[in-house]
């Protein structure tokens, strides 16, 4: 755990007792603060009380006695309207921060010679894969690496800082909105496409939140495939750019190939877990960050090629005859699904869930690659209407979709891909995209498929 100094003997309000909230309270308490916790959930409050941390109804508290509000990233700061704790904090004139900012202050409090290096990654899509990939590359190079944040372990639950360590942290737009002094040595923005707009008041607010990662950063690595990324890159001094398309860029990422900008050409095709143009982009960011941290070229490439991949992100889960099953449940919007559909000349596509703004309108140019679509969840009807003449059927649930897709793909007698890339959120049928991906895996294995990696 990371101790958070700077609030010794002072009361700090902590709202939201999920993973980040409880961890923040522990870190504050370890640093000498007096955290005061509250959550709308009775069970969450009971868990906090069981840990011996003060729980107090913040609706009736005297906010003039608090030094700060540590707000859960799940509670709105500005839109669609500020959380009630935000109003209380502003009336009392106290700062509103989150767990990433607490981490930043804990690092800044260390002597300069004893500080670890920090890499922060954000973006609409690809940030989790880039985070895990960079962590893997650095570990393969023999470095002490701690990976967490919005992926896996909450940032304040990571091991205490040491001089030789590197923290590789995924940060969301919600978390970045709650930072003021966060200063990573390397900051990465993978890409930007419309997402979470209700929480940021529109695209302008969303882009501004993502761009906060560069406010105090050292090296800036920016994806410029979209106009919003190009806009951010133009506003960041000395940004290094990454692109998968034509046009000027410092680092070029094509499907299966990198041009590093250092005179090196890297063939990614031996890396089975990095298919598609989007994974080439992720590899480009990981390579550039690793090189900036002193990893030699050969070791950086070796790490990329040996990456085992992440669950629910273009994950090969099994094979049945000549049919491969790919789990891309993390594709919760059309832009993410585009990356998956573009990776195959032809696929039997399982899509649907709770649709986001625009649905699958932006994927029309890829419909010719869809042999047939099998639609699930709330979006099944609207997606069917949008697919038009593209072969499709409404399956309703995951098991039915997997079974029907497998039968249709196998009937061709060719090498085929059944692809779960929903282009929609999971919350109509599942608590999160991980549960949806596991349901897909279970349905595939129930058909008798050989699990990926099995001999």
UniProtKB/TrEMBL annotation:
Entry superkingdom? Bacteria
- The residue ranges of the Mur ligase central domain are 121-290
Which subcellular locations apply to this protein? Cytoplasm
- Does the keyword ATP-binding belong to this entry? yes
Q: Which reaction does this enzyme catalyse, per its entry?
A: UDP-N-acetyl-alpha-D-muramoyl-L-alanine + D-glutamate + ATP = UDP-N-acetyl-alpha-D-muramoyl-L-alanyl-D-glutamate + ADP + phosphate + H(+)
Q: Name one GO biological process term.
A: peptidoglycan biosynthetic process
Q: Which SUPFAM superfamilies match?
A: MurCD N-terminal domain, MurD-like peptide ligases, catalytic domain, MurD-like peptide ligases, peptide-binding domain
Q: Which family does it belong to?
A: Belongs to the MurCDEF family.
EC code? 6.3.2.9
Per the record, GO CC terms? cytoplasm
Q: Where is the Mur ligase C-terminal domain?
A: 312-423
Pathway per the UniProt entry: Cell wall biogenesis; peptidoglycan biosynthesis
* First-tier enzyme category under EC: ligase
The GO molecular function terms of this record are: ATP binding; tetrahydrofolylpolyglutamate synthase activity; UDP-N-acetylmuramoylalanine-D-glutamate ligase activity
What the entry lists under Pfam families is as follows: Mur_ligase_C (PF02875), Mur_ligase_M (PF08245)
User: Gene3D superfamilies, alphabetically?
Assistant: Mur ligase, C-terminal domain, Mur-like, catalytic domain, NAD(P)-binding Rossmann-like Domain
Q: Keyword set for this entry?
A: ATP-binding, Cell cycle, Cell division, Cell shape, Cell wall biogenesis/degradation, Cytoplasm, Ligase, Nucleotide-binding, Peptidoglycan synthesis
Function, please?
Answer: Cell wall formation. Catalyzes the addition of glutamate to the nucleotide precursor UDP-N-acetylmuramoyl-L-alanine (UMA).
Q: Which residues bind ATP?
A: 123-129
Q: What is the protein named?
A: UDP-N-acetylmuramoylalanine--D-glutamate ligase
